[in-house]
Amino acid sequence: MAMVKDIDVRGMQHCETTALGVLLRHEGLDLSEPMLFGLGSGLSFIYWDSRAMGFPFLGGRVKPFELTRNLTAALGLELLIRETTSPRTAWQNVAAPIDAGRPVGLQLDSYHLDYFTTKVHFGGHVVAMYGYDGEAAYLVDTAPQGGAVSTSLAGLARARAERGPMTAKHRSFTITAPCNLTSPQDRIIPAIRTCAEVFLNPPIANLGHRGIEKTAKQVPKWLQRSDNPQEDLPRTAALMERAGTGGALFRNLYRDFLAECAQLIDSSHLRTGHSLYSEAATLWTQVAALITTAGASGDAKHLMQAGSILHELSRIEREAMQALSML
């Protein structure tokens, strides 16, 4: 058996910030989950639909692993990433750091993890691994998934080897903090401005505030878009509210990040952004509830109402990011 000592196995709401928290605490840096999310410029929006998809996808954060790259770059941390097509090399890439007393982050497909409560393929899942024995790997996942958990080595191997949307080639990573660590507080404004810039100037209409506006136009048609609205609509709403988002499609996390920042930085622009994202978070939860009700009832009026709120959300988030871009 190999086990990293003195691991804080706190599970948080979102998978990537949970894993980052484990790795950074081991390096002596303990940040709140909203601060990890915000310093990683994690907030985003995407509306995605295609003929190959059974139902549209709504996303509220940057693509998998981009948050990790953003956060480590912002804080001047050493991020060592290993990828390989060889399962044998992949295991060595994980076992070696753990044997040396360092936890490892893994990107994998959650479908194959023994403890996972919802069996769906998601190749962008991230966990921290801190030990193993002859049969099991010891991981830290989100609080809803159990925090400190274990899965069979065979299941872990399948999860890491899976191929498909958002998967990586047996990706593992470690983080090392330098002696002269950049103060997190000094990186708050650049991280917020980076996030705002991308949100306000999306390259295509599916992203950022333009993506929310597009969603406002498409959601009222969802009963016709789905072959099984009684399942598709509530599932989409559940993904918005649960599924590691922290609620309100990650808007609760960003609201709390801005609130924490406002305690450290005196800025009217920051207070405006926080106030608007507090409003937005509440409205996103209302949208999810309306989508659920529409799926259960088959009544399009709930989707029409959701569309109206989404139109308002596009404006609110645009104004919030415009204020934050002026920091």
Task: Summarize the structure in words.
- With 327 residues, the chain is an alpha+beta fold.
- It has two domains: 2-30 and 78-176, Cysteine proteinases (Cathepsin B, Chain A, Alpha-Beta Complex), CATH 3.90.70.10; 184-325, Four Helix Bundle (Hemerythrin (Met), subunit A).
- The chain is 48% helix and 14% strand.
- It has twelve helices and nine strands.
- Helix 9 runs antiparallel to helix 11 (268-297).
Furnish the topology, listing elements before pairings.
Layout (H helix, E strand, L loop, with lengths): L1 E2 L11 H12 L6 H7 L3 E6 L8 E5 L4 H10 L2 E5 L4 H13 L4 E5 L16 E8 L3 E5 L7 E5 H9 L10 E5 L11 H13 L7 H11 L3 H4 L3 H13 L9 H12 L5 H30 L3 H24 L3
Antiparallel strand pairs: 1-6, 2-3, 4-9, 5-6, 5-9, 6-7, 7-8
InterPro entries: BtrH_N, DUF4872
Protein name: Lantibiotic ABC transporter
Organism: Streptomyces chattanoogensis
Shape: globular
* Averaged pLDDT: 96
- Portion in strands: 5-15%
Compressed to H and E, one letter per element, the order equals EHHEEHEHEEEEHEHHHHHHH
Given the helix and strand composition, which structural class is it? alpha+beta
Number of strands: 9
The CATH architecture name of the largest domain reads: Up-down Bundle
CATH C-level class of the largest domain is: Mainly Alpha
Keywords:
single chain; 327 residues; alpha+beta; Cathepsin B, Chain A; Four Helix Bundle (Hemerythrin (Met), subunit A); 2 domains; seven-stranded antiparallel beta sheet; two-stranded antiparallel ribbon; 9 strands
